[in-house]
Each structure stands twice: as C-alpha cells, then as structure tokens.
Amino acid sequence: MNFFDRLHDRIVTVDSVVSVGLDPDPSRIPAHLQDHDLPRWAFNRRIIDATHEHAAVFKPNAAFYEDPDGFRALEETIAYAHGKDVPVLLDAKRADIGNTTRQYAELVDPDSSGPSADAITVNPYMGRDSLQPFLANEEAGVFVLCRTSNPGGADLQDLELESGEALYERVAALADLWNENDNVGLVVGATKPEELEELREQVPDLPFLVPGVGAQGGDAEVAVEYGLANGVGLVNSSRGIIFAGEDAGADFDTAAGRAAKRLKKRLNQYRDE
Ligand SMILES: O=C(O)c1cc(=O)[nH]c(=O)n1[C@@H]1O[C@H](COP(=O)(O)O)[C@@H](O)[C@H]1O
Fold first, then answer.
1. Atom 7 of ligand 1 has which residue's CA nearest to it?
2. Where does ligand 1 bind, in terms of residues with CB under 6 Å?
3. Structural domains in the chain plus CATH codes
4. 181-196 confidence digits (pLDDT tens)
5. CA 18 – ligand 1 centroid, Å
6. What's the angle, vertex CA 8, arms to CA 2 and CA 117, rounded to 5?
7. Residues 196, 199, 201, 203: what is their CA dihedral angle, to the nearest 10 degrees?
8. What pTM does this model have?
9. Catalytic positions, please?
C-alpha cells in the first residue's frame, strides 16, 4: 500500500496530523537513562509509549543516530514504532549520484538488512537522477526539501530564476512532475506562511511535511491550513514534544505525552474549521 494511503488511514485512526520528531540529543536525555546500554533507545521507547496515540508518524532525524550505538538505537526505534502501528518518516535529507543514492534508498527498502523507514526526506539539489531510486519505490514516501524553515533557507531557495519564479517554486514544479507514483510530498517550514499558502495553490495535490512549530516558533494555523492536501499532511514538532518534560526527571514522558496531545488538539481545531 502506498505511503500516503497508509498515512491517510493513520491520520483517520488517531485523528491527528502530528509528526513527533525523535531527535534525542544525548546531552538532553534524562540523567537516570544515561547508564542504559543505549540511552537514545531507552529515551525514544518511553517517548513512543507516551505519544503514539497522538502520532500520525514518528520522524527520527538521522543526525541524532549516525554512530554505531545510534544506528542500533534507530533500528530499535523503528521496529518499536512499527509495533505500535505508527509509520516512520526518516529525516535523512539524502540524495547523491546514482551509484551512491541506490545505497541510500535501502533506508526505505523493507528487504534491506538494516533499518527500513516508511518515508524519507530528500534533497533536490542534485536533480532527478539523484532521487530516482526513491521515486521508483512505489511504497515509500519521498518528501522533497522545498522551502525550509531556517533563516538561511533564503540564501538559495529564494533566488529568482530567469523565468521569474523562485528556485523553491521550481523545486515544487519538478516535484510535481516527479510524482508519477503518487509518493512525493514537499517539506515547507511553518516559519514561511506566505510561501506555504502560495505553494499549496501551486501544487494542490502534494502533501506537505511542515516542520518548525514549537521550538522554532512557526505558525500552527497556517501549517494546517496549507500543509494538508485532501486531508493528508504532517505538522512536526520535535524538541517541543520530546523535551517538554526536561525538568520533570523520571516523569519526563508524561509531559511529552501531554505536549503531543496538546499539539494534536490545537491542530485539529484548524482541521475542523
Ligand atoms: O526536513 C525537516 O524535517 C526539516 C526541514 C526544515 O525546513 N526545518 C526543520 O526544522 N526540519 C527538521 O524538523 C525538526 C524540527 O525540530 P524542532 O525545531 O525541535 O521541532 C528537525 O529534525 C529539523 O531537522
């Protein structure tokens, strides 16, 4: 089953478009978990237990797992999320020349020997061939970075092309063309409300992953209003959920569960409008 059909079903089941970002910064993991064999996994497990009823997806960011223990923590995390029936969107922002990107594409190949996510974020900078193995995988979702939430996103993404369109608009147009298998979405930051509105009009059928609410102060209302295509899309918060209980010691997960529920309710107000 296609990723966006699975995501649609998950959104309906939990009545939520919340993406819970699993970015377990080792320096912020509670002290009582630090002597665990794999502290990041112990942390994620508690977060998953506390938030899964509110999660449309879990979104681990690869940056927090790229070392031997991290890789094991990621494998455990993905398997555990799947055990709770929650799809996993691996935020890896990958792409490279064909020979290399074929290896990256194993990250969303269920037959690979390593961890396998349901969807992935990719970087369009190297063009179509760098994304081909992801695009050809009919089952996995491919979220193309389009207009990112960070201030420096303007450096390249806002550049005006000879045609008069901005580079990020060209990326959106290309992503729409690349969507032959109905598996492509865009990443558009919640800190970019005007671009969100304009992109929704430009590519009405592409679901967006909208990061940047919570710690980055993005706009939750526009994230929902323009992030969803036919009801399908994701609004991500990472630190705002997983570290909500940073001062609560052993009870950190209760606060995380509450934060996920609060975000779900807030987003649902706008979904219902
Ligand atoms: O691709 C992403 O998810 C992403 C794109 C973007 O434009 N901005 C952005 O913040 N992200 C990711 O979304 C998460 C945001 O984390 P918080 O700011 O803690 O909610 C991080 O994992 C970022 O890497």
1. 148
2. 21, 23, 61, 91, 121, 148-149, 187, 189, 211-212, 214-216, 236-240
3. 3-272 (3.20.20.70)
4. 999 999 999 999 999 9
5. 13
6. 50
7. -130
8. 0.98
9. 93
